[in-house]
Amino acid sequence: MKLSGFGLGLRPPHYEAILSEPHAIDWLEVITENYLVPGGKPLHYLERIRERFPLVMHGVSLSIGSTDPIDFDYLRTVRGLAARIEPHWISDHLCWTGVEGRNLHDLLPLPYTEEALASVVARVGQVQEALGRQILLENVSSYLSFHADEMSEWEFLREVASRADCHILLDINNIYVSGVNHGFDPVKYLQAVPKSRVRQFHLAGHSDMGGHLIDTHDHPIVEPVWDLYRQALTIFGDVPTMIERDDNIIVDAPPLRAADRLAIYRNAYQVRLIDALHETYPVLHGLLGDEAWVELGHAYVAAHPSVFRSIRWYGRELAEFVAGCYSDAPILSEVALLEWTLSEVFDATDAPSLQRAELSAVEPSAWGSLTFRFHPSLRRLSLCWNTAAVWKAMSADEMPPGPELAAAPIHWLLWRQNLQNYFRSMNALESAALDAALRGGHFAQICEGLSALLPQEEIPAAAASLLGAWADSGIIIGLGSSDAVASE
């Protein structure tokens, strides 16, 4: 089926509305990196949505213009996602996003030289071979140009598409913005792009900040962009068109000094990463307050440049960083640790759970050697403060209790069931049993480990009760036998 009409960028807040309400939407564009996760709610909704709407994939981390080696592991995950959701096409940006293993999470312009052109063409060939399909490359907006440029942006785009045999995602707003920034005629740009290569349009609005424009994609599309879109339709015909909703920063008159133009990229990098930290650590942000949060964010970004293709994974070391910054308030690092662990639970691989009836069906003679496989989302934490109570209160927009040090570390069990994250405390008995089971211990060994906590005659029943509770929570996904392992 040929894609046509108008599309919309799929974002998590839209999931339920997209599925439950009627829409005049012809197709949806998904950000590739948002779904390069083992499992969880994003992929669950994506599977459901693809049954109702055609999809296209739009990446932000291909970094086709970088000098780093092609990341074939990343491409394998992209190809795997494509096999799963069957998009009409895969697109990314004609830019670079990082170098030397660092990801700036921004769409940085290229020098328009023969050397850069040859490099991009060769890399596109590698990417298309790895993905087993042609890709679309999108023109990006820019705030600066290079003295070394040997051709115009549209000439560079045209040559990439022709020599690499790839297609084009033409962003009308970016043409308009860059035309204002660099003083070229956007219509001339349109007329130079090969019609046969254009597969998709992007449209977007931006915010007028007085001295410059911010391409926030949350304002109405301005009339000059609509005019340019009408010109594009005259030249290219009815190309599938999507209105964007992501964040890209662009510059308009008055002219800016070179240092100011570079500062826009630098500031955007910091703001984007601090925003990503907030998505993972909203409670920590709330406890610190805006001023201290921004200060912490800038310090963390300076100490921990991003090395992740997906910005959702940024912030893994924040709990340890907070511990060093706020040694006089150790509960803050525990809050960060809890929030990061919940994010891991959220994105963990899906797996069907074992039912209690399956446990009941095990022959009595087999129980002693019985081993257990647990859900990939399962995590456990030991926390010394009333961290969970603080987190729950803040998450409910309630006044949190003051920090209280527990008499002994509290053991917590975290997991996902039916796309919902859960966590609860464990007593010493359950914690010891779970530790033994996670180490691969069979049922008899689990019982032996409880001998210091319970009278001997109570241990089997207590252990069986724990197993039943774990099965009801969905954290056991399979059974095995230590006898089978030994026989191998």
Task: Describe this entry's structure for a reader.
The chain has 488 residues and is of the alpha/beta class. It contains 19 helices and 17 strands. The strands form five sheets. Strands 1-2-3-4-7-8-9-12 form an eight-stranded parallel beta barrel. A three-stranded antiparallel β-sheet has the order 14-15-16. Helix 5 links the parallel strand 7 and strand 8 (167-171). The radius of gyration is 27 Å and the shape is elongated.
> Cα distance, first to last residue?
51 Å
Find the structural class using helix and strand composition.
alpha/beta
Number of helices: 19
Strand tally, please?
17
Basic shape: elongated
CATH top level assignment of the largest domain: Alpha Beta
Defining key terms:
Outer Surface Protein A, domain 3; TIM Barrel; eight-stranded parallel beta barrel; 488 residues; 3 domains; 44% helix
What is the topology?
Elements lengths: L5 E4 L5 H6 L6 E5 L9 H10 L4 E4 L13 H14 L4 E4 L2 E4 L2 E7 L5 H18 L4 E3 L14 H12 L2 E5 H11 L3 H7 L5 E6 L3 E2 L4 E2 L8 H14 L4 E3 L14 H23 L1 H7 L1 H14 L14 H8 L4 H18 L8 H5 L9 E5 L4 E7 L1 H9 L9 E13 L2 E7 L1 H11 L4 H7 L9 H15 L2 E6 H6 L1
Parallel strand pairs: 1-2, 1-12, 2-3, 3-4, 4-7, 7-8, 8-9, 9-12
Antiparallel strand pairs: 5-6, 10-11, 13-17, 14-15, 15-16
